[in-house]
Design a protein that fits this description.
The chain has 342 residues and is α/β, with parallel strands linked by helices. Helix content is 24%, strand content 21%. It is built from 9 helices and 16 strands. Helix 8 runs parallel beside helix 9. The protein is globular, with a radius of gyration of 19 Å. The two termini are 13 Å apart. The mean pLDDT is 97.
Length: 342
Amino acid sequence: MPIRFPRPLRPGDRIGVTSPSSGVAQEHRPRLDLAVRDLEDRGYEVVVGRCMDGAGHISAPAADRADELTWMLTDPAIRAVVPPWGGETAIDLLPLLDWDRLREAEPTWLVGYSDTSTLLTPLTLLTGTATVHGTNLMDTPYRVPEGLWSWPDIVEAPRGSGFTQTPPGRHRAPGFDDFAAFPGIREHTLDRAGAWTRLDGTGDVVAEGRLIGGCVETLCNLTGTPYLDVTAFADGAAPDGLLVYVEAGGDDAFTICRNLHGMRLAGFFDRANAVLVARTHAPGNRSLSQHEAVMDALGPLGVPVIADVECGHVAPHMPLVNGAHGRVVHTSGRSELTQTLR
């Protein structure tokens, strides 16, 4: 299966905004408006869908959310779809999406992370369409630290091009900005130092493979289903192997450990040449840290495991393209990830 990279966006293109999981409450609408204006200032037309209600944990009934997402991903006038943020139960959309239409349509960028992983990863695995595991729409107004790319930069990049991201060496302490009180905030509070950490041993790491991964708490629920057949994807699109990445949003170390064990037993990591693990503020337990949970589950793989990568719930964010060719380098003096849209 060849990877289908959507054509790069250019000024005048249309971006769709819908909430496949959680919508936007009234107190957060000013932040949504700011994020939409930022995309418009970049030259895009933004279409906000009907599934945006933030009164509950979902924006609309599952059938309505599935219909709107399918429409936006198959309408040739819409070139990218970006949810405002994640949520909890996007899993209910998977059996309702029109997968045949998604395979046959010209590919469209889908961007997001957290619960949006529930959709991003299956879309790449089942249709070969590259997707962007990056910031959600509400985070788009933040200025991007040196060394990282924004998701608009990535979806504007030409097919076949490559880009390298490097960790800025600082990240945010636990907590999130209050968008209701400060809807116009644009600067991340990056008040802690930190670098990538090799968990499986010492020495330099250089590894390559096609990127695939996402949020542990959501993807673990897809193991054993047709929506997370990473082995079949690797057979068709990545004969030289994968760079698999995972991130923990908030579950404690015991839960993450069990989830990763289950994903490994289901074959999620079988073709991994290396595993990238996001930095997390999720809690450890008295006898098991988050790093120890990862190695308890993934140590048997016998491949490099690099933790504290900026691809999770801790700001800043390093967007990763599911389906892109990746090359990771981690030495005592250099850490970088190069992605090529081919």
